[in-house]
Task: structure prediction
Amino acid sequence: VKHWYYETFAEPLVDIERGLYRFFKNRPQVMPLFWEMVTHHFGWSADLETLSPDKVLSGMNGKRSRPLLTLLVAKALTGDYQVALPAALGIEIVHNFTLVHDDVMDKSLERRHRPTLWAKWGSSQAVNTGDGLYSLGIESVCDSMARGVSAERTVEAVRLLTDSCVATVEGQMLDIAFEQRLDVTSEEYITMIEHKSGILIACSTAMGALMAGASPEVQTSYRQFGRSIGIAFQIWDDYLGIWGEPETTGKSASSDIESRKKSYPILVALERAQGKSREKLLSIYQQDQVSAKDVKTVLDILGEVDAVAQTRQMLDVFFEEGLDALADTGIDNTSQERVRELSKFLVARDY
Amino acid sequence: VKHWYYETFAEPLVDIERGLYRFFKNRPQVMPLFWEMVTHHFGWSADLETLSPDKVLSGMNGKRSRPLLTLLVAKALTGDYQVALPAALGIEIVHNFTLVHDDVMDKSLERRHRPTLWAKWGSSQAVNTGDGLYSLGIESVCDSMARGVSAERTVEAVRLLTDSCVATVEGQMLDIAFEQRLDVTSEEYITMIEHKSGILIACSTAMGALMAGASPEVQTSYRQFGRSIGIAFQIWDDYLGIWGEPETTGKSASSDIESRKKSYPILVALERAQGKSREKLLSIYQQDQVSAKDVKTVLDILGEVDAVAQTRQMLDVFFEEGLDALADTGIDNTSQERVRELSKFLVARDY
Result:
């Protein structure tokens, strides 16, 4: 499946990866440390401008699915995606700013099997690099004007991205506030993931439509599509964090239980479990450490309340909602089919 | 002198403070915590829309000198500053984003005699609030279009602000990297403060000219003026950190020596001191704690190498350079005179 992804989307993915590299490489380097941290974070160890497309693809340290959505939507609407490239890169850069800051907040030591920026350079320089990435993400959106996008549309694109960032930040604030609570409802949780991940994915699809000059109605449909698949994508991530195969997820089985993450299935169980099961669950989620026996207990309780079915059902609800919105765009061509395939891949990504 | 400032600039300062309050108050609040943290940071404890101008001024928790520069420059050029207000607010919001993140990095517990955001809500939520403020600062600049600014000029304004932010971040990265070094030259130090503070002040003055529709040449002169007085302002801050009167600075005497801050006068001493003096100085700046006797020793060495005169001279060089650039704008009227007075006030601010 991973192979399918990099083969099907080879051309736009190479354009994205080289575009990111060029964007950072070509700016004046006041502070060599910034470039060093950026190249480490993006996983660049060679000059991407001279590297063959195959090597660019095989060296990619991330799926770049957000800018890919932007480019595919633009192509579905106009037959070409070059006009949307600077804005697509801006979204990926901003997404990476949020990853760098999230790693500081979550004290994550590794990302994609490599040390995180704060683990290598300290949290201050990681916060700084994140702030710098955010600035440059906005500047990349402004570069759209050099590709013939009008100033009016460029301002709209900046607003679309900054509005989405505010939502992402609010989602992250909710997530951190939830850590202190055991009474978070599954509904509140959906609001949180909508903000923390859904809205930036909605921004990615809406940005493609905006750069392609689509009508406000079509932009709205693409935005709703992105929002819904963004939520479904996060629910699928929660599913894999508990029931995913270690060989395919690259994490230990039940890793989200081990880290006592209050993900969607756990919140379902907290809402549904009664009596002793509920007491046990609450007690395990208040412990500092979780034993193998505790993991087994949690899995049993999840089984009792049928959290698997509920999780899969919610995923389907949002995914279907997304496909309906995609159909509402009224666009039907090969590129649009690619957009649909990509969204399926994102929700059932089994690697 | 403080009285002079709030009296002379009462009208624009009230417009700035109320503008900031309204900007945050009127947006939809997904996350009430964000509004709570923002009001705490800005020091708002009442509804500023109904508060009398006098009370707005006396309650101000910061000088708001950057947006004030923007408004005064716009007024000097066109006789009115309303067109520049959203961009001026954007700069102040972005400046406050950098303060919130700096407090996390420096582990500062208080700002203006009140707990910092990270001290009250933890570093994660403070980083998040800073990120949110940055987004909203850019959005405020985009609001310029509602005051009749063209989309082209609005994109230029966004770029001016994000470019300045990249420079500010690079300055902060340099500052943190310098903490680990004892061989920072006074020249490197000037580059650091130019980036960390000078360029956002340059952005403030250039933004006023841009919003007023000034020619590129006039914009450049105002930018150079802001850059130079920004550097002078920082050197003056370093001067006060060592030789300022506790009654007027609100800090203990020699506070920068106590915290072993490698400010401009100290770097001059590290460059000029010879033999035993140099050894003593290096040894004190490698200690974890600094005694009252050490402070006295450092002050003596600063006296030996005449660091006071060198510091004052550098301040004068940059201040004069700033006034020359201001004269180069070719503007001469009452509002321009106010700009000049404000810059004098910033460099000799003795409270």
Summary: Residues 281 and 297 of chain A are 8 Å apart (CA to CA).
